[in-house]
Amino acid sequence: MNIGMILDNEFTGDLRVENEVSALRSAGFNVFVLCLNYGNKPEEESFHNAKIIRISASKSIVKKLRALTNTFFDFYTSFWANKINAFVNKYKIDVLHVHDLYMFGSAFRDKKLNKSSVKIIGDLHENYVEGLRHYKFSTTFPGNILISIKKWERTEVEWINKLDAAITVIEEAVERYSSIGIDKNKFTVVPNYVNQSEFLESSVDPNIVQRFRHFNTVTYIGAFDLHRGLESIIRSVPEILNHIDNFKLVFVGHGKNFSSLNELANKLNVSKYVLFEGWQPVSKFSSYIAASSACVIPHLKTIHTDNTIPHKLFQYMIMSKPVIATNCNPIVRIVTDEKCGVIYESGNSQDFSQKVISLFSNSDLMNELGRNGRIAVESKYNWTNAAINLINLYKTM
Prior knowledge:
The chain is α/β, with parallel strands linked by helices.
């Protein structure tokens, strides 16, 4: 079977896609990935014996066009439909594995125009429609005028129903899709569990660990955006400093609200206690986590975050770090079941500061929570287990 993955992003660094490609190749499937190239990566290359085919593009233009998908000014769907058509014909693709809801329309358009028999699997990384209620590009001008949430709600149901199969990241998401009229049997859950061998392969940088050796640190790794809840944990820093010596809040990543986060830290006179490390390659994540006392997932609780699960949770756990996280449903379930961290109320800076202060006062508990997290990943929440569902799905296609 020839599987063609469609990714409107760069391939390298997307852990979910990389893990899926590796698993499918190991299971004996032929895998071809059509993706974008924002820099100087080769037009074609091999990854675990899968073929990566790149389309040169401008990141800024792609972001603008992507935002206009399913609007009157949707040129992006036609662009991708043409690329998919050439891709399917050249590599004799049997199944298209399309990442992200907003890309499904391109696959459907190609199949209809070319009367193709190719099957289509949709990989739903997140609740995109709910995300549109929170993303900056869709909640500010002109996106808030051009993008119709109601239209996207109808399109979501229509497109997922048209798929031959759908993949989602967590069981809670299946329940959500069922509640809007989509058959549960269409879904396979392939969670964002950590690939232990790949993640732990990166050696820990002793220089990074040494930098934070004398500090009590809480670290966040990931993208910056309004729905990530980063503002609330910065607001907690003044109170934490009254109780914890040598405290540092460390951000590893970047995003649209980077400037406003800096301004908030300055306004609260805590800028020297809030460290922005900027974007870092995935290979550095284990070093920053190793250097941390605890790690945080501060995502605001919404329908969006109640139906997804971040990679970072399992990355924190495999590195034996206690997790401090908001009360988003899947995170609460896992953290509570595995006794690997503490939960605080989303957006509640006071609750966060109290949980941090209490946790840091009990080193034995911190060690126990960290140890529980690692054991849970080694036995359950790992990519080896997650990949079984993906491979079994393809065996039925």
